[in-house]
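Subject: design request, 171 residues
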């Protein structure tokens, strides 16, 4: 029994560090680039993704604020709508984002067809102190192939911006 508890604790440790923000000071500088196809599909791979605080989580487009959104806008160019393939979207610790047009270019995101490699989430919206609205994600349609997590967004009172989602496959 003791060994099983230790294994469970070891498996949960990255999540505990993520939830408490213990590793926040050690976040490395990220210089990630994304390839966008002519059909406006941004495809993630382990080579171009990951979370700065938990580098074992791969296949994730991580948005930590307006700078990340500006870089994403540059990669998407003139796409009127785009799809995220091969991974999930994590909007995390983005305390300078409020919602609505503030989420551009996420306002043009039409579908997420993948999920992160470690925990199987397609969409995570986590610990964004100022985020009051998800209306900027209103164009998102279809079903998510992975789980949906919306946690610790203190000003967020509604999930209305996700109303276009038809379902979530958390399995």
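Subject: RE: design request

Done. Sequence follows.
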């Amino acid at each position: 029994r003791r060994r099983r508890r230790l294994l469970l604790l070891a498996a949960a440790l990255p999540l505990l560090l993520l939830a408490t923000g213990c590793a926040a000071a050690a976040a490395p500088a990220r210089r990630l680039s994304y390839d966008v196809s002519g059909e406006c599909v941004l495809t993630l791979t382990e080579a171009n993704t990951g979370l700065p605080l938990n580098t074992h989580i791969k296949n994730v487009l991580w948005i930590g604020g307006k700078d990340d959104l500006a870089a994403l806008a540059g990669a998407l160019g003139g796409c009127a709508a785009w799809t995220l393939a091969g991974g999930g979207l994590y909007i995390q610790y983005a305390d300078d984002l409020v919602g609505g047009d503030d989420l551009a270019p996420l306002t043009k995101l039409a579908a997420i067809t993948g999920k992160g490699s470690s925990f199987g989430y397609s969409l995570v919206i986590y610990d964004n102190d100022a985020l009051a609205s998800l209306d900027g994600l209103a164009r998102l349609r279809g079903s998510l192939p992975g789980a949906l997590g919306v946690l610790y967004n203190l000003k967020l009172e509604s999930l209305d911006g996700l109303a276009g989602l038809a379902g979530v496959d958390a399995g």
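The first helix runs from residue 2 to 20.
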